[in-house]
Amino acid sequence: MATTLTMSFFSTFTISILLSSILYQATSEVDNFLFELNQSKPVKKKLSHFRVYLHDIVSGRAPTAVQVVKPRTPNSFGAINMMDDPLTLGPKLSSKLVGKAQGLYASASQEELGLLMTMNFVFIKGKYNSSTITVAGRNAVFNKVREMPVIGGSGLFRFARGYVQARTHMLDIKTGDAVVEYNVDVMHY
Q1: In the chain, fewer beta carbons within 10 Å around the N or the C end?
Q2: Among candidates 92, 153, 83, 161, which has minimal Cα distance to 115?
Q3: Cβ of 79: how many Cβ atoms within 10 Å?
Q4: What residues in the chain have per-residue pLDDT under 70?
């Protein structure tokens, strides 16, 4: 009887040690996925400002924005457009191309032309080539100035925060084509 108790005790003890070891390894693997970076040098933030012109072309044989969801109401509420709009240094489409505004805009207001904008400014030239800035916010189209937040970025704009101010430079009522000036203020590392 004492031998059975001793063997039972050792079996239980051995199983407990094995389970504890397995659980410790599993827990340490889970805990080790997140750790603080020890920064020996302070990271300097930069504030960048630039102006670009977005060309939203919905007419013609080569539109840069197309409607992907039609509205189900008499006004434009619910319409969604996908865009791959050129970003240029000047208001003319023939001015220097520096990137694309890629994303979508949706008519999100039933009372006015208020758009929900989600887009990336994808830069294709110079120092910022392949870096992006992500903008998401409300664009009340007929307001003189519209402000939307910069919520992130990639490349040289990693961890970006800031805002854009949009001003309509030109709107063709017949075609719906527009040129919008974007002034961007962005804090990044």
Answers
A1: N
A2: 83
A3: 18
A4: 1-14, 16-39
Residue 102 has φ and ψ, to the nearest 5°, of: -115, 130
3-state secondary structure of 128: helix
- Compute the radius of gyration of the chain from its Cα atoms: 27
Please name which of 70, 81, 89 lies closest in space to residue 176, comparing C-alpha atoms.
81
| pLDDT tens per residue across span 82-128 | 999 999 999 999 999 999 999 999 999 999 989 999 999 999 999 99
Query: Is residue 9 classed exposed, middle or buried when 0-12, 13-18 and 19+ CB atoms within 10 A define those classes?
Result: exposed
**Residue 32, token pair as written in the block:** 């080790």
- What single letter denotes the amino acid at residue 105? Y
Hey, which residues does 153 pair with through a beta bridge? 133
